[in-house]
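Working notes for the structural subgroup meeting. M.R. asked for a predicted model of this chain before we commit to crystallization trials. I am recording the input and output together here so anyone reviewing the notebook later can reproduce the run.

Input as submitted:
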Amino acid sequence: MSAASNLQQAIVAALRADTELMSSLKVADIFDRQVQGARLPYIVLDNLETMEWSTDEDCNEEHRVTLAVYSGENGRREVQSIMKRLRLVLHDAALSPVDARLVGLRVVSTEVRRVAKSRLHQGTMVLRAFTESA
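Returned structure, recorded in C-alpha cell form:
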C-alpha cells in the first residue's frame, strides 16, 4: 500500500476510536464516498491529493486530505460541533501510518455551507500531512 492509503487508514482509525466523536456527537459512520440514504450525520473521506517531495534516498510525500461532514435537520450547528471535534482529534495528531512516518498533520482550512436544493449542510476540512518512508 502507498503512504497515502496508509495515512487515510490511520485517520479513519483515529476518528473511529474517538468516543466523543462517534458516540456523543452521534456520527453514524465514516465513508469513502457520499452515500444516499445513509443515517446522518456522517463523515466522508472526500479527496486525497499527494505530491512527491522526495530526495535521492527517501520517498517523501505531501498529502492534502479533504474530509466532508454531512448533517440533516440539525444543520450548521451540528456540522460545526463535529468539525470542532475533528480538529481536536487530528490537528498535530501523532498517527502511525503503516510503512511511513508522519512528519506533521495540520488543519489548513474549513468551510460550512448548505447544500443547494437539499436539506443537508456540509462542512469541509482540509488537512495537510507530510510523510517520509519508514
